Amino acid sequence: MNVNAAVAAASAIAGLCTGVIAVLAFRWSEREQARPTRASMRPDDAVVLPPGVDTVLSVLSSSAVVLDETDAVVKASSAAYALGLVRGGHLAVDRMLQMARETRRDGEIRQIELDLPRRGASRGEGLAVSARVAPLGSRLVLLLVEDLTEARRIEAVRRDFVANVSHELKTPVGALSLLSEAVMDASDDPEAVIRFAGRMQHEATRLTSLVQEIIDLSRVQNDDPLDDAEPVEVDDLVAEAVDRCRHPANVKQITMATGGAPDLHIWGNRGQLAAALGNLVENAVNYSPVRTRVGIAGRRIAAPGGDLIEISVTDQGIGLSEKDRDRVFERFYRVDPARSRQTGGTGLGLSIVKHVAASHGGEVTVWSAEGQGSTFTLRLPEAGIARDRALAAAGAADFHDSGLDSGPDSDSADTDTDPDTDSLYETFPDHIPAPEVLP
After folding, report:
1. What Cα–Cα distance (Å) separates residue 223 from each residue in 219, 227, 228, 229, 355?
2. Residue ranges covered by each domain of the chain
3. What is the pLDDT of residue 436?
4. Higher pLDDT, 244 or 22
5. Which of 182, 187, 273, 389 is most buried (CB neighbours < 10 A)?
6. Phi, psi of 2 (to 5 degrees)
7. What's the Rg (C-alpha) of the chain?
8. DSSP codes of every residue in 390-413
9. Contact predicate 176/204, CB 8 Å
10. Which residues belong to any copy of the Histidine kinase domain (predicted)?
11. What SS3 state is found at 220?
């Protein structure tokens, strides 16, 4: 009897415990279901983000990232992924993540500029960014990142340009100051005065050339060449470039050979095109040894977007190394600084050529080998094609016939040099092969 009672009591206790456990398990299950999970805390963007924020972020030029209270990314723009700010649903930049946490804690807006490594770039190349963090509601944090890399590059170019200009101006100005003192001290020596005055004239000419090329470079960069565009005959440009370099070529007994296809026309600013080709020919003469040849030739080449006019200037000069070829079009870059000082070069000529070619929808390229010479080639759209592009861009409906179908004016100045008076100038055949070093 007692045994049966004990069994019954044990069974009752076991049943009671089972019931209690079942109730607790049920309550725990309900509580777990009611607890917000990470998935439930991250519904659709339209629900999580305040009204209108999603639309605003989509039109911002800055990279935008929205973080929730667990530092998970709720919303990120495509630019943020492109910069590598977001990876695997999380903010990948520790310093920005730290700023976001501090802003979430005290609600203060923070801003900082950082240098970030660029994915896939070589060592030393990175991204300069400005990051700004602000609270967005009670639970979210907004991170805006602005890419400052291009602005930094432009600022560095401007800073270097100002430094180079200051240095280049300082040299002739300082020389003029010293020479003027020397003239005053040598007032009783006529020969010394004449010698110093000649040096002053040389430095003044150098200073004038530098200032003029700085002005030309500024105009090329700022002006639209098609505002004053006209059909320009290539033969006229070549003749003008040859005439510009006639004296230094005669002094060095350099033969100037011209030729190529006739009746070629370019649509653009005559002054800028003449300056560009003149700079190429002048460089070829300056960097060529005595009793060599410089060739200038034009031809028409086929291209997918329409025919191009190609003007090549070939010399038998010192040539360029691979390092110099990559930098020869930079401002104030000189292959041989000593030779540039002797010839009065400023280091801006080829930079002007590059900008003129680009502003006319073309390009300038260089082939060179050390000790063999160089070939600089201007490729520009032919007059008709460039004119049509300009009119289409301007929305013009009609354009009067420019007379390009007719030949050159019969009364134009004869650009051929009389061989009896100047044997240093020759003429290429009408059709020449691709640019190469002259024999």
Report:
1. 5, 8, 10, 12, 11
2. 45-147, 149-222, 224-397+413-439
3. 41
4. 244
5. 273
6. -65, -35
7. 37
8. HHHHHT-------STTS---TTSP
9. yes
10. 164-384
11. helix
Q: Quote the Cα angle for 245-249-254, to 5°.
A: 135
Tell me the HSE value of 161 on the side-chain side, using a 13 A CA sphere. 13
Written as one letter, the residue type at 226 is L
Residue 257's nearest CA partner among 417, 414, 365, 366 is 417
Instruction: Supply the CATH classification number for the domain 224-397+413-439.
Output: 3.30.565.10
Structure tokens given for 20? 């209690």
If one looks up domain 45-147 in CATH, what number appears? 3.30.450.20
Helices (H), 35-135: 38-41, 45-48, 53-59, 78-82, 94-106
Residues facing residue 2 across a β-bridge: none
Percentage of residues in the chain having pLDDT higher than 70: 72
CA-nearest of 66, 240, 214, 186 to 136 is 66
- As a three-state string, the secondary structure of 325-388 is HHHCCCCCCCCCHHHHHHHCCCCCHHHHHHHHHHHCCCEEEEEEECCCEEEEEEEEEEHHHHHH
Which is nearest to 358 in space by CA: 240, 238, 232, 226?
226
Q: How does the average pLDDT of the chain come out, rounded?
A: 78
Token pair recorded at residue 363: 């390009």
The pLDDT tens digits for 194-249 are: 999 998 998 888 888 888 878 888 877 765 666 778 899 999 999 999 999 999 99
Q: Which residues, in sequence order, are bridge partners of residue 140?
A: 136
Cα separations in angstroms, 63 against 42, 78, 235, 436: 21, 8, 52, 49
From residue 359, how far is each of 26, 217, 369, 380 by CA, in Å?
78, 12, 28, 10
Residue 20's pLDDT band (boundaries 50, 70, 90)?
low
Q: Model confidence over 385-421: pLDDT tens digits?
A: 655 655 565 554 444 444 444 443 434 334 344 433 3
Overall fold of domain 149-222: Helix Hairpins (1.10.287)
